[in-house]
User: Fold these one by one.
Assistant:
Number 1:
Amino acid sequence: MGRLDGRAAAAPVPAPPAWSPERVYAIGDVHGRLDLLDALLTKIADDRSDHDGRPSLVFLGDLIDRGPASAGVVQRVIELTRDPAWDVTVLKGNHEEALLLFLDQPEFGPTWAEHGGGATLAAYGVRPPAGRTDAAAWTAARDAFAKALPADHLELYRGMELWTRRGDYLFVHAGVRPGVPLEAQDPKDLLWIRGEFISAPRAAEHVVVHGHTPVEQAQLTRWRIGVDTGAYATGLLTAVRLDGTDQRLIQARA
């Protein structure tokens, strides 16, 4: 419909392309697939060979659970945090939150184990109890896990951030609640939200780069970039490279 004064309505001004002030590689949910992570890191190292600066490496959470090598994944990430060639940020996912909850509340163990935590216990050399209702066995498993957990692994788990920003991009594990300022976001939403965030045409003033919701193909849209390609089940681990206004995917496949 035209304007009532007879003049044509002005076309909406398109949003400028999102911009990153530095090169950033954001890696989706690894879920214990050290084989895929090592392959992806090799590709990222090759890709950054033309870059003279110190790129950012952002892990979007859910390093652990489901896959067979959670302890190895965490060790590799710790090694990267000590490498001066990289500016590494490790974000917390809902699976890391579950691990920390188990350490504080062993009765949470059965729920965590059913959602992939059993693989993480095994990766640290702890056998999950066979039943859900044996409280003493789960307390013993928690104690054994706490003893087996290297100090630097625990430090990484407890020090994970909920979000980070680079230029026009906001990096977070699950997403944000649409229309809520970042400083007012509920941490639970940052770790768990799906439907309301995924379906929103624009959830935040930044372009949100996230994992958590598995997709067959990574999603690069104007206001959202989703890079969880279900590595533990599909054998496909995805990262997105952001550099200035350029966006491109880097992937490793089993």
Note: The mean pLDDT is 94.
Number 2:
Amino acid sequence: MSFTAPRLPDRRAFLVGLLLAGQAAAAPRIQPRLPPKPPVVTVLGDSITSGLGVPAQAAMPAQLQAALTRMGVVAQVRAAGVPGDTSGGGLARVNRSVPPDTALCVVALGGNDLLQGIEPRVTKANLRAILQSLRDRRIGVVLVGVGAPTLFGAGYAREFNAVYPALAREFSAPLYPNILAGVGGSRQLMQGDGIHPNAAGARVIGDRLAPLVAQALRSIQTAAR
């Protein structure tokens, strides 16, 4: 009776097999590519921005979000409004209220300055400091103004109304001249206090502001390429 020894594998083939097995085990897993996060738009403002008197889903920031969505603009709008805030109050909190992931800040302050009769030069200085802070942090800006009626005095109204265009020119910022344009004075669009828009009025503001915000976002994205 004869005995046949089992055939041993070729040494080189064996080593190659071990090498390939080790490479396969060490190969990193390919992670699926996640879609890019939408740019963040933070709305820094007062009671109109905070949605005083209306549900959050009907306030101006939410209406701006809805208007951008209808336009096909991908963005995430965040509300950062504090009722009663003046331009000075906005300046005091701009760095904490506008988080670092913000691509664009809508600065909508000054209405309470007007109601309190704050000197336009003070309002201008505060707003300038806010805009400079955002520029230093490389955050884009859309400036939203407030229209002062002549019942505050013709000279005061003229000086106050000149603040926003001057700052928009200085910082090359898009300007929405009057937050209550097309809304103020309308019983259908304003709350009973005659100061704050209702849900329908907030929608008008959001719809009118959205094209300017969309354009600013496109400019930011183009500059980043």
Note: The two ends are 81 Å apart (CA to CA).
Number 3:
Amino acid sequence: MSLSLPPLGRSTTRSDLVAASIRTAILSGQLKPDEVLVERKLADLLGVSKTPVREALIALTSSGLLTPTRGRGLAVRRLEDADVRRVYEMRVLLEPWAAGRAAESPTTDVEEAARALDEAARCAQAGDRLGLMLANRRFHRHLYAGCDNPLVVTALDDLQDLTALGIVTLLWEQWPTWQVEAGEHRDILAAVKDHRPEAAEKLLREHIESSIKRLA
């Protein structure tokens, strides 16, 4: 049988929206580490059936934001310094290389990355730490997505939620370094925009390693 089907792309499903809502509640501190999530309660709060909530909880467990409890429930993950360090050690193996390849590519979306940094600056000025973290997250993704290696992009995507949780619950609580990081982000973006792969790779490696050193 000869079959030719166009790709469907990724749609935003109800479970995606539920996952986004729960993720925001976790990263904003409304849902605390070790807090057990009750499927029915979440469904009632969000005005949806239990099915998209169940699917969202599965996805958030896969990304690392939730962890199973002894009673077969799910709780918000509590990260220790060592957990966050391991996430950054994984990132430093992949993300600098991805930034270097993105700097070589003429199709890397530097404009979207620049807009993310502008949004981060506005959030920092307004004292919106959650918005700042999410804007920085978009910046990193716009850069590494330009490496033209879907396996690397997927691996880094899988670390996004744990990185975000580590930033808001540990790194920025102990070391409020977002002003320094903003300057580092601008330097990394300039290297990618100017097609300087060695500089982009070096700058991003140093950017990530600075967090690893703090957590050592």
Note: The longest helix spans residues 81-104.
Number 4:
Amino acid sequence: MAEISTSIVIFFIFTTILTLFCFYQTNKSKKQLLSISIWMVVVGILGYLGFYQIQNTIPPRFVFLLVPSILFVIIHFFLTRNNTISNEQNLKWLTLLHTIRVPVEIVLYYVFIAGLIPDLMTFEGYNYDILCGISAPIIYYTVFVKKWIGKKGLLIWNFICLGLLVNILTIAILSAQTPIQQLAFDQPNIGVTYFPFVWLPAVIVPIVLYSHLVSIKILLEFRNNNTAANNVFNQC
């Protein structure tokens, strides 16, 4: 791997652990935490051994970084009953969790400097994800503390940030060294195939995606039920 300072590696490991902590606070599910931790260990070991760096395989090893966890998120989301999600998830933590997107973007910038991802994937390119991280505590304050913005504003924010997540995911996939690569041929996206950065597509991105989907589902479920919506906000 190209030279990346030890401090950045440690910083990213800490960011990943912080993401797990924030996600655990949303529902206090030890079963979910254990499942994610096991997956994190498996991916970490494979990343350390260089499994994801091997090219010219069918399917591309990059697929195993992103697809399994994303599929699990989607399947789990749609199979979970609405009332279970609404009762267990904590909208405050689901909102604050997105602040981790700031340190993630800082790490990505240094990985770009090391030549392991294209500038398209940083805030200097077409990755605007850092705006979600910066705005997360502001949204939290205006929605849950001052109550200047209601559930409609929170819903709009989640949709916008979900769109920005899809944007960077698309860029990352099209920049990776796979048969469908369309971008960044001079400096492709290979950084996320190295340990510990394998945790970005395999752990952090799915958690962020799930947090948006759950928040949107809660807010849409109660958009015409003010009593229920108020109960959910009061539980936060």
Note: The chain is about 65% helix and 0% strand.
